[in-house]
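seq/struct pair 1
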Amino acid sequence: MKKTLAWAVTLVTAATCALGTALPAAAADDVTASASIASSGSPLDTSRLPPEAKALVDQALADLPADWQERRDAAAAKYGIHDTQWAGILNSAIKPGDYQCQNTEFRDYSTSLLAGVDDPELLDWLYVFSAFDLPTYEALFFGSESKSNTFGYNGEYTNQLTSEGKNLKRFWDIHSDDIQIVPMHGGEFYSSPERVARTLAVLYGIKNDAVVLRLAKVITGLVNDFPSLKGGDNPIFTFNAFAYSEEGNPNPSGISDRIVVGDGILEAMNAIGLGDTAPRAVLAHEFGHHVQYEDKLIDKTTLTGPEATRRTELMADAFGTYFLTHSRGEALNTKRVLDSAKSFYQVGDCSFSSVGHHGTPNQRLASSAWGASVVNDAADQGHILPSLKLDELFEAKLPDIVKPDATN
C-alpha cells in the first residue's frame, strides 16, 4: 500500500490562489487540479506575456521534456501531493442542511497570500511549472533531520518542535527511530538555483545538468520577479506540513519516513493567533499518521472514499491531542490544547463528496476534545494506552463524532 503526504498546499490551491479569488461555494465541487492555462486543452500560449517574461517562459518550455506535463502529474499522484488535509482550504463545497460548516480565519488568511499580484497570467505559469510545489518536493526528496535544522522563518519554533519530536518517539509504542522531522524553507530554496535544479531533475527526469540548471534559473527568476512572493518566502510556497511513509509500499522510492513542516504553515498559525501551541498540535497530528502507518490502521476499515479519509484525519486529531494533554506527553492544559486544536477546526471542510474530505470544523474539534477526554477520564493518569487500544476506543466513538449536528 502506498503511503502519501498527510497535508500540503496543492496544485489546486496554488491555481486558485493564482487567480486571486476564493472559489464560490457552489462551484467548488467542480474544481479539479487546473489553472486557466493548464486546463484549456490547447497548446501552451505565451503570446500574452510581456516580452521579457515571454522569453523566459519560452526558454523553460524548450528545456522541458516533451512529456513534462505527464511526468509532473505522475509525480503528484505517486507522492500523494493532492492527498492532503490542506488541499481543500480554498476548495470547500458547502452542503447546507445537515452540517454546520463555515468560513474560518485560516481560509481567509490563505486567500490573502497572493493578493495584489500584478500579473496573474505569469503567476499561472509558475503554477504550471509546479513552482509552488517544488519546496515540498525538495523536502521530500532531499530533506533530512539535522541538528542544524531550524523551524520557522526566524528559527522561532526550532527548540519547541525538536524537543517535541523526541517526546513523540518516546511516547508512542511504534518503531519510530527512523522518522525524521524535517523543515521546509521557501526563500532559502529559491535563493539556490542548484537546489531548484536537483529537484527539477528528479521531478521531470532531466539528465542534462546544464539544461536543468538553466530551467531552474528561469523558474527562480520568475519567482523573484514578483515582490509579493518575497523570493519564495511568501507562505504559499511552504503552506505545508505532511507525514510520509513507504511502509507496506511494494514499489518504494527509497524515501525515509518523515514529517515535513513548512515555514508557511507555522506563519499561518501565528497570523491567526494560534502560534503558541498550534505548531505542536500540527506535529502531534502528523505523528499520529505514522502511528497509523506502523499499526496498519489506514486499511483497518470498511469505509471507502471521503469517509475513509475523514476517519484517518479525525483519528490523527484525536491521537495528537491525547499525546499533547497526557502527563507523559507534552502535559499541556486541556483548554490550551483545545484552543490550539482550532488549527484543525480552521481547516475543516464540507467537501462531502471529495476523496480529500477531512471532516467538518466541528467534527475535527470534537475529535480533539474526545482525545483530551480519554486522558482526563483515565483512572491512572500516568498510564499510556497502547496505540491499538486507543484506536479501538476511537473506532467506537467515531459514529458519534461524525453524526449530523445542524440545529435547523
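seq/struct pair 2
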Amino acid sequence: MMFLRSALFNLYFFLLTFVLGIGGLGVRWFARRRALAYAQFWARLLLGGLRRICGIYPVLIGFEYLPPAGPVLLASQHQSAYDTLVWLTLLAHPTYVMKRELKKIPLFGPLTPLAGMILVDRAGGAAALRGLLAETRRAVAEGRQIVIFPEGTRTLPGERRALQPGVAAMAAAVKLPVVPVATDSGLRWGKDAFFKRPGPIHLVVCPPLPAGLPREALLAGLQAAWDAAPLPRAGARCG
C-alpha cells in the first residue's frame, strides 16, 4: 500500500508541477506581482495531496515564538523537500535563501526571483555575500519572513554537519533575532526517497536567539536549540 501511495503522489507531484509550471509562463509575462501567491498556491496543492494520498500532515509546536507580522529570520533544519514547501503555506510573505542553480529549473525556476527569493552563488565569494546581505536588507524592508537552511543541504535525521555562517552575517546586517526551527521531516519524506511514510511531520519553533550574538555563539545556539527540540526522537524540551 505504501508503494502505491508513494507512486501516486510522485505522479501527482510531477503532473501538478508541470501543469502549473506551464501556467507560470502567464505569471511571468502578465502578472509578475502574483508570482509569490502562485508559488504558495502550488505548495498548498502539493501538501494537500501529500496529506490525502500519503497520510502525511504537519504538527506545529512553538509557533507563539513567531511574531504575528513583520520581518523574521528563521533558521530551519533541512531533511526533506517538504521543508522547502511547508513555509510557503505557513508564512504570509516568505522569502527563501536558495542556491542560484535552482533558477535554471525549467518552468518554475524563473519564477523564483519574481517571487522575491534570495538566490545565492555559493562559489561567488565576497561578492556573493554582499549580494546576500543586500537582498536580506531588501526583504526585511518589505516586511518579509526569511527562511534559511544553515546546514546547506538536506541531511538525514540525527545527522550533524558544520553550519554555514551566512545566517550569522544576515542576522548582524539586519539586527534581527534568529528563530531556530527543528523538524523530523526526513522520517516521513527522506532525502531523495521514493517512499513517503504516513504520519506527522513535526515543526518546532524554538525561542529566538537574541540579536547581536557573535557568529560562533549564534551557530552553537542554533545547533543546541535543534538538539533540544521536543521531537519524538528526543525527550528534551526546546529552549
